[in-house]
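To illustrate this point, we now present one chain and its tokenised fold:
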Amino acid sequence: MNIPSPSAAMVGLAVALGIGLLVGIERERRKGDGDRRAAAGLRTFAIVALAGAVAQLLPIAALVPIGGALVAALAAVSHWKSRSQDPGMTTEIALFATYLIGVLCVVEPALGAACGAGLALLLAARSRLHRFATELLSEQELHDGVLLAALALIALPLIPSRPIEMLGGIDPRPLAAMVLLIMAIQAAGQAAVRWLGVRGGLLGSGFASGFVSSTATVASFGNRAREQPLHTGLLAGGAALSAVATWVLALAMTTTLSPQAGVALLPVALAGAAGAAAVGMLPLMSHPPSTVAPTVPASTRSALHPREALAVALALGLVALLVGTAQRHFGNAGLQVSIALAALVDAHAPVASLASLHAAGTLTTDHFVRGVLVAVGTNTLTRCGVALAAGGRMYALRVAAALAASLACACAAAIWFGA
């Protein structure tokens, strides 16, 4: 057993005492008083944390597990004799965890301090966590979250991680991670619509829908603008926020596939998102709060759409194949043309293809940023045409103003940062 130096031992003991006091203060405030007073409080937690640190410091074999068994036994007896009406075991489990953190404070003081602070924060957030689990989170949202966690922790690691030349050098695991990212944003967007209410829901639905398809969002809001002409400005503002989502998702996808390209795209994406948000929020800011906005019905269906996610993955793969082939046979000119053609339908797939080419080392950073601007610019023309067809002239003008401001800000940022 390695015995730490006196200075290191003092640091470990001090950190353990601090953690014991921090967690103990939180438990002291909840232990109650009188006949229903809980057993463990400030002093108990401080002593247990110090006991864990001392057990780790003393050169006695098996002292740490013996101390842990003793603390666990005392916690079990305390729970059995408890007269509290609360059947939970939080304090007892926290007492044992505090002992283990005290041990850790001697081995790794910084990690022990972080674990202790996290434990105290978790205990202090009891009411908020209970409210989130029982009131804010619906049964369907819980199901969606568990499914996403299973896909991320079970399915994703099983996908092979090696570049595929036919897909322009794209790695299937980041591709699957992007699909999971889109599904997670879908679930978060639906929850935000329900939590934020009508006006916030309009903003949230426009923003969240843009992660799936900004073009479809513009068309959907345009149809509603024809049905509710008095709310054309509000709906146009909500549709404009889908352009913010386009830039955010483009940045997320790029960073996943090529972190270096993500750094280069960061100022361009932020400028484009800021331009769309500034112009899109104007009608929403000018409307008085008393104005009744169009309703956003709460959906009881799952926000996750596996078929759409698979379609996104297929589209990304096909566009990557198209873009990679065009660059190999026709150079950068063919690359830009293929990007523009692919972006007529959707801007996300061309951006992913460009990022994969950059990660493979076949595309320079400057050409990558220019390709992204070509993709977003071409898709902007498509969205403007869809806005005119779906929502009419006034709706189209307002949406086009936001999209043009977004593209102009992005181009200005690209020029300023030398792309």
About this structure: Residues 148 and 184 are 7 Å apart (CA to CA). The radius of gyration is 28 Å.
